[in-house]
Specification:
Elements lengths: L2 E5 L6 E7 L9 H12 L7 H4 L5 E4 L1 E2 L2 E2 L4 E6 L33 H8 L5 H7 L4 H17 L3 E9 L2 E2 L9 H5 L12 H16 L6 E8 L15 H10 L4 E6 L2 H4 L4 H4 L3 E4 L4 E4 L7 E2 L2 E2 L4 E7 L10 E3 L6 E3 L10 H24 L4 H17 L1
Helix pairs in contact: 1-5, 1-11, 3-4, 5-11, 8-11
Length: about 400
């Protein structure tokens, strides 16, 4: 069973993660992992924090001579900004009167008030530090480890930005092939395949930043060459589409997930929605000419590419703050503001790639098992022969 946990606060000393369940013998490309961390920090509309942090993984366990041991993998991502937060975020008691930068004015739309009520704290920093999207750096690294396993078996993952605020790509870019999405320019400031729409999106971000506001948007993530049979129809919690939706909804600021053409399909008749089935006698494989289901039927992959869209709300930390109430005095105030981004949608696309990679790797390991990569390769090859003979 593949599983992971992360630990660490936004302005703490570091982020830590432990990943368990990868087979032994997998070659680990640390440059690929650090590249994903770098991609997460890019994107038009990011704040000053991205200029401070230069994220890299420091592996502390589970890897020997560049290959997995089959034991838990642990790693650290150091926070360079820690030097400015050693008193406010000190694990040890600090002298009375020290400036711990408390926050008592919750931001609408953030964890602040709900978390403070849950944990009965009047210093909101106790909850907001962990809820910060800074934690997703550790998830992106975990996802990169998982993607190395998927890549070994020919599965690739990519993403694109479809919309920022009210600006959206032209219709012909709405339904790019998976290969076209994988080929989106990595240097693109918004990971958008439509250059004209990208210019309009950047202009919208500029206007929002000038107004002290923020913008959300829509990202699409795809997984290519996923074999049929991952997931299960037998129990609600084993359905792979449900697991994917939960993983992507866990991304900070995500408010909706769409698999395939789920939203449009709800407005159409069944004869238009469902993907007709064909058989290629030469390749000895079933296939579909359309993929409105997004590669999943009844919680199981069907050999089509997995395609998912995530809808991101504008982040709630605003220079133009909304009205709030102080948790101590109960008096109305403008909500607290700390250094923040104007738009995080391009970064959310990279995080979505990571989360999809984690879920697919877990399903892949459940299906093909094996303590070692060699054993998993044999199991996978055996399954391919069964598909050929079906």
């Amino acid at each position: 069973m593949l599983r992971f946990v992360t630990a660490g606060e936004s302005h703490g000393k570091c982020l830590t993660a432990v990943l368990e369940g990868l087979p032994s013998g997998l070659l680990i490309d640390t440059a690929f992992i650090d590249l994903q961390l770098h991609r997460r920090q890019l994107g038009y509309g990011r704040g000053d924090r991205m200029q401070i942090e230069k994220d890299r993984t420091e592996i502390t366990a589970g890897i020997r001579h560049g290959r997995t041991l089959g034991s838990p993998i642990s790693f650290i991502i150091w926070n360079r900004d820690w030097e400015h937060w050693q008193i406010p975020m000190s694990p040890e008691p600090v002298p009375e009167g020290a400036n711990i930068r408390p926050i008592t004015r919750p931001r609408p739309g953030h964890v602040d008030l709900a978390g403070a009520l849950k944990h009965q704290t009047h210093d909101i920093r106790d909850v907001l530090e962990r809820a910060s999207a800074r934690e997703t750096a550790a998830r992106v690294a975990v996802g990169a480890f998982c993607r190395l396993l998927l890549r070994h078996f020919g599965i690739s993952i990519g993403s694109q930005v479809l919309a920022i605020g009210s600006e959206r790509v032209e219709p012909r870019f709405e339904h790019l092939s998976s290969e076209e999405i994988l080929a989106v320019d990595p240097e693109s400031p918004l990971r958008c395949a439509d250059p004209e729409a990208e210019k309009r999106m950047m202009a919208s971000i500029d206007l929002a930043k000038k107004a002290g506001d923020t913008l959300g948007g829509v990202v699409e993530v795809v997984a290519v060459s996923v074999p049929p049979g991952l997931g299960s129809h037998t129990q609600w919690d084993r359905k792979l589409d449900g697991q994917i939706a939960q993983a992507l909804m866990s991304i900070p600021a995500a408010k909706a997930v769409e698999i395939g053409e789920g939203i449009a399909g709800a407005q159409r008749v069944g004869s238009i929605v469902h993907d007709e089935i064909y058989y290629d006698a030469e390749k000895r494989r079933f296939y579909r000419k359309t993929n409105r289901a997004g590669g999943l039927e009844a919680g199981i992959t069907n050999a089509a590419d997995v395609r998912v869209r995530v809808y991101m709300k504008p982040i709630p930390t605003l220079k133009k703050p909304l009205l709030s109430a102080d948790v101590h005095t109960k008096q109305p105030f403008d909500a607290a503001f700390e250094r923040s981004d104007t738009c995080v949608v391009p970064a959310a696309a990279v995080i979505a790639e990571a989360m999809l990679g984690i879920v697919l790797a877990r399903a892949f390991i459940e299906k093909f098992g094996g303590d070692s990569l060699v054993e998993m390769e044999a199991n996978y090859a055996s399954y391919q022969r069964l598909l050929d003979a079906y």
